């Protein structure tokens, strides 16, 4: 698959690394040779120092034969313009990163398609959705709902209170049990488990279940004592914070602490009193946090542009008794450190945006793709075609590649967990987890 990425910034370089794992033909364009030279020599891609809004340069990159053109420069107008040109020159699909929330309105989708922009990516909105998913369940590190909750994936840190530790999974998660453990992150190791694997203390375990059994999962992992989030304190009032607060449930009481007084004035214009109280101050000031009720706060969300500040602020909030913390960590080098410090939910906008774009490179009927950053694994929702190989045999006889597991499926709107005897049917939505496996191998099973 031929993919052109315009913009060797955070999202573009991360996406290039992600896509290069699958042996795609990738060209990364940027008009700065310095940014291109900073890329690792081990990446399997070509670079082109040129402007993405130059027709000549786009032709030099071979845009007329490209399957996907992705514009992720910091300039929204430049992204839109380059996508329009790329589509006109023959690109099959185009994706533009935007900064304007108004452009995401569903009624504008067809309008942008007529301009040549197949899809829009607004990272702040995607990050806000992940933040709120983490806040709705204080005992969960990560939650992903499939088909409105017909299936639910929960990433949970296991503590001493868990009753399912040190037992082979075949004894605690059989065909008749209402959950499957589909991935385990243990230290720096990622495990796609089989029946003989065991859950250990401090594992980050990914469970696949259905909505009605979420309370059961909460019980067996020993998280019933975690209080639900009602009071939320947000440090940093940038675009991600605004989008998160605007989409938080109404029952949550939110305070935003922002150090810039002019930004505070703007936040008061963007948000009404019911959505949030805006406080001008430094979110690292313990006296201020105490005065504003940190002791009665169930969740602390650090969304400044500085990863170190966010990590330290979350550690401080934990020391002051806040159980649920969320940190925006844009520096990938700090992600594993934040995880080792037990920060909680980690938000990385470029990883979220890259996952959203990732699905467009797949030929099979794929509804959703996520890259589980903490576990270094992919999870995708595949829909098999009529006569696809995956529909011809029970799952146990399919000979799935090592590092792949099928977590569950949705059939006629109902979530079903997959066992070895399950027969997948054409039209099912199947959740596939894989680690260190070329996604194209999985595609061949579903086409």
TrEMBL record:
<keyword id="KW-0633">Potassium transport</keyword>
<dbReference type="InterPro" id="IPR036291">
    <property type="entry name" value="NAD(P)-bd_dom_sf"/>
</dbReference>
<dbReference type="InterPro" id="IPR006037">
    <property type="entry name" value="RCK_C"/>
</dbReference>
<keyword id="KW-0630">Potassium</keyword>
<keyword id="KW-0406">Ion transport</keyword>
<dbReference type="InterPro" id="IPR050721">
    <property type="entry name" value="Trk_Ktr_HKT_K-transport"/>
</dbReference>
<dbReference type="Pfam" id="PF02254">
    <property type="entry name" value="TrkA_N"/>
</dbReference>
<feature type="domain" description="RCK N-terminal">
    <location>
        <begin position="229"/>
        <end position="347"/>
    </location>
</feature>
<keyword id="KW-0813">Transport</keyword>
<dbReference type="InterPro" id="IPR006036">
    <property type="entry name" value="K_uptake_TrkA"/>
</dbReference>
<keyword id="KW-0520">NAD</keyword>
<feature type="domain" description="RCK C-terminal">
    <location>
        <begin position="141"/>
        <end position="223"/>
    </location>
</feature>
<dbReference type="Pfam" id="PF02080">
    <property type="entry name" value="TrkA_C"/>
</dbReference>
<protein>
    <recommendedName>
        <fullName>Trk system potassium uptake protein TrkA</fullName>
    </recommendedName>
</protein>
<feature type="domain" description="RCK C-terminal">
    <location>
        <begin position="366"/>
        <end position="447"/>
    </location>
</feature>
<dbReference type="InterPro" id="IPR003148">
    <property type="entry name" value="RCK_N"/>
</dbReference>
<dbReference type="InterPro" id="IPR036721">
    <property type="entry name" value="RCK_C_sf"/>
</dbReference>
<feature type="domain" description="RCK N-terminal">
    <location>
        <begin position="1"/>
        <end position="121"/>
    </location>
</feature>
